[in-house]
Amino acid sequence: VGGCPVKTILVPSEARPNSSSQYLYEALRQHATIQPLDRELDSSEDVLGTLLVNPTAEASTNLPEPIITVFNDRLSRMPLAWIEHFYERSKIVFCLNKPEPFPGITRTECFEWLPGAYAPEVHQRFYPRPDDGRAAAIGYVGTFNAWRKYRFLQRLADKAPIQIYGNNWNNAPEGFTKKFWRGAAAYGENYAEMLSTFYIAVNVLESR
User: Fold this and answer.
1) What is the pTM assigned to this prediction?
2) Least buried of 29, 34, 78, 102, by fewest C-beta within 10 Å?
């Protein structure tokens, strides 16, 4: 407006926001336009940089800088080669979990914690809770990747009805899995809808 450059954030042309990252895109659109990399820019645009959300390693070559990378999952689930690749090329790497130490990576100041949070405009779409018998007193959605999760949820299950959704629970004690596990994990809006079936939703971290 008034001759001011239009602030622009570039994304790979093949990038399509998934249900998790679309809210990041929506938030950014309050401050800048989001345009595909292969579109020809004009002189009225002030390019802030290139945004990569959960990219493949090949996606960060020959891109306008600065490059900003966002991983909306735990970094330890990514191949170390990917972490090294983005660490070398990105001005900043945002990750959903607090950054963890990696062998051979010393420039840790480029990693920043981007915590997930309750978004009323998303979660409130699924309330009040469904009156169809699905509601549980306590619910947990997450991966079985630490015994402390099992022990914590087992103690809860001694006190109140509990339902568990997530991956790898087939590796927990069989009796516990058969009794409390209800199915695979959910993501994005499906995750928000699943939470609406619990009176209390708990989160158990992999480590203290």
Assistant:
1) 0.65
2) 29
